[in-house]
Fold this protein.
Amino acid sequence: MARCRIVVHAVGGDEIGLGHVVRAAALRAALRDRGATVELIVEGPPWAREHGGEEDVYGADSAPEALALHQRLGSASDALVLDLPERHLAEADAEALAGLYPKSACLDDGDCGLAPDLHFRTAPYWGGPDAGPGRGASYLIVAPKVAERRPDAPWRGSRITSGLVAFGGSDPAFATEAFARELPAELSWTIACGPGFGANRVREIETSATPGIRVLPRVPDLASQILAHDLLLTLGGQTAYEAMCLGRAVLAPRWRHLERHVAGLADLGLLADLGPLESAPGRLNAAIADPEALAETADSGWSVVDGRGSIRSADLIIHLAQS
């Protein structure tokens, strides 16, 4: 069993959703399973912190509060793991963190602000199993409750009958609203609203959605909802990887910083690219009309995201902390 102390720092909130927090919480669980002592800092609003786990989560409302926590925890720790949006760290904060921890790793594909000892780049287009430590989809992290529900085979239906709309914890693109009015009524649809939506926004979605669509204001078990549907509409981030692990076809529009990411995944056959968000709802019917192509997409994603990325990542981080 590992004997090391690791601090993991993730950010969540209205502009970026919950992907970083969910990934960090899954990594913490894998590290603890291997005997490491792990402290998790979640920077963001209370609803984001709730997804950091049941216990031992240090909450920070801002970057300065997070830095103060690092100053308390860093001197007794062997390594720091950051899961932050690109360029989130101010230069001065990055320099302070580099001085507090002997080793560091970054989970996000982008520039985390440090020059880490280990930089995970896990998007499938970064390379295959032989791309090097921390690179490629074998290190993709999904929540334990997703990995545990991974089916023996992906969806292989001959006809699409249902779809799940889940654009993350906060959906900063307002893609939920864009699609809610355009979902084809002949399918059974469920809209999953994230914890960052707020009651007023949920009511507006319920009012504007195609009649007959089920709108869930809170979804404590997203994995079950993914498995209950043939396909997933999402932005292409963490929720997309969870659906791939569960063997469901993923469809995604292109939006802002995720545009190149969605295009890269589509080039590998891992999701159906619906094009720019402004026109994506109009392309939905054509995608649904080709269940054979969506079955191939589901199979490709299921083959690539095997649910064991947190284990592989934890092994690398523990080796780093003990070296």
